[in-house]
Amino acid sequence: MAPGKKNRVFVIGVGMTKFDKPGAREDYDYPDMAKEAGEKALTDAGVPYSAIEQACVGYVYGDSTCGQRAIYHSLGLTGIPIINVNNNCSTGSTALFMARQLIQGGLADCVLALGFEKMERGSLTSKYMDRTSPMDKHMEVMINCYGMAAAPGAPQMFGNAGREHMEKYGTKPEHFAKIAWKNHRHSTNNPYSQFQDEYSLEQVMNSRKVFDFLTLLQCCPTSDGAGAAVLASEAFVRKHHLENQAVEIVAQEMVTDFPSTFSENSCIKMVGYDMSQRAAEKCFKAAGLKPGDVDVVELHDCFSANELITYEALGLCEEGKAGELVDRGDNTYGGKFVINPSGGLISKGHPLGATGMQRKLLVSMREERPQCCRASLLS
Fold first, then answer.
1. Which cellular compartments is it found in (predicted)?
2. pLDDT at position 326, please?
3. Is the pLDDT of residue 359 over 70?
């Protein structure tokens, strides 16, 4: 390819499993999840597995080469490169990012992106206690700001980011609870969601306390599940006459931490504000859009606090004004944006390797009906 020139990339098929409580489906292991999601995506695309030239497979918990085991005896043994991806909560998104790059760079015309996770019940814990934790420097920032409590690490990190937001901008616990209340309500429309129960705001606020203002109904659960997408080049789309179903990925960015994550003694920065902001800025620039053009947003609501903070990072409102956005109802149907119509991680579930993939699938399915929305944004 000519230097600087990139191929257009299209989603031509998607598939996913229902997200379930870990162990809820008897004899349902990760190869079964991969088979279900992968076969659905191939059927949706209308292409056989033999058309797939490479596969990028994401998962967090499992031995090396689970991607090969998931595909070999579920979809096919064709000798293609299978790349395993492990990138924590962005694992599924990273698999899709890599698959897209393969097509953008002209290295393949049809690539499968697959993400799955088979999880344990309860809060996430470290698996390797004999080596440095990848989160040790992040935890140092939090401890310097607020200390360490007798609670799981993840809700402390994001809960303390929420505390900082309340201290700086006057945000109230009710604002975070309203986000969870909204997401649970949205989940009632999603048959793939782990939970489909609607709660009152009082029930959200009065559910079991997990950390500080964060209650159980404001925290995502662990989950089992899988998602898959078939990506193709423009040449492949035209050759196979798939124009009527192909959805172009017009912009996708991946950003990692900046010095500000660790140097500004801020839990908001520590949980990823600056990299989310930079990723959104780059996406909008690449797409030729601005935040006000967006109708639908799927973002990472591992905890209600992160959803609120991410509103500002994505430019959906001014810094410090997320609470006002919530109060206006500008995050749900009838408001300026519809944010996490899937129910978000809080209701839909959070199988780490599948989560980022599933969000892309939902928006891809919506974008097939362009009259429904001007633009969709994922974080």
1. Peroxisome
2. 98
3. no
pLDDT at position 363 is 47
Q: Region 85-111: what's the mean pLDDT?
A: 96
For 274-304, letters b (16+ CB in 10 Å) and e give bbbbebbbebbeebebebeebebbbbbbbbb
The pLDDT assigned to 3 comes to 60
62 — phi, psi (to 5°)? 160, 160
Query: Looking at the annotation, which residues are catalytic?
Result: 89
Q: Are the beta carbons of 176 and 209 closer than 8 angstroms?
A: no
From residue 18, give the alpha-carbon distance in Å to each of 37, 70, 213, 225, 349.
Answer: 9, 17, 30, 6, 10
3-state secondary structure the chain: CCCCCCCCEEEEEEEECCCECCCCCCCCCHHHHHHHHHHHHHHHHCCCHHHCCEEEEECCCCCCCHHHHHHHCCCCCCCCCEEEECCHHHHHHHHHHHHHHHHHCCCCCEEEEEEEECCCCCCCCCCCCCCCCCCHHHHHHHHHHHCCCCCCHHHHHHHHHHHHHHHHHCCCHHHHHHHHHHHHHHHCCCCCCCCCCCCCHHHHHHCCEEECCEEHHHECCCCEEEEEEEEEEHHHHHHCCCCCCCEECCCCCCCCCCCHHHHCCCHHHHCCHHHHHHHHHHHHHHHCCCHHHCCEEECCCCEHHHHHHHHHHCCCCCCCCHHHHHHHCCCCCCCCCEECCCCHHHHHCCCHHHHHHHHHHHHHHHHCCHHHCCCEEEC
Residue 250 pLDDT greater than 70, yes or no: yes
Parallel/antiparallel/unpaired status of strands 247-248 and 9-16: antiparallel
- What's the pTM value of the predicted model, to 2 decimals? 0.91
Main-chain phi, psi angles of 119, to 5 degrees = -110, 170
Rg over CA atoms, the chain? 20
Three-state SS across 214-269?
Answer: EEHHHECCCCEEEEEEEEEEHHHHHHCCCCCCCEECCCCCCCCCCCHHHHCCCHHH
CA 338, CA 330: separation in Å to the nearest integer? Answer: 7
- Mean pLDDT, range 285-293, rounded to an integer: 95
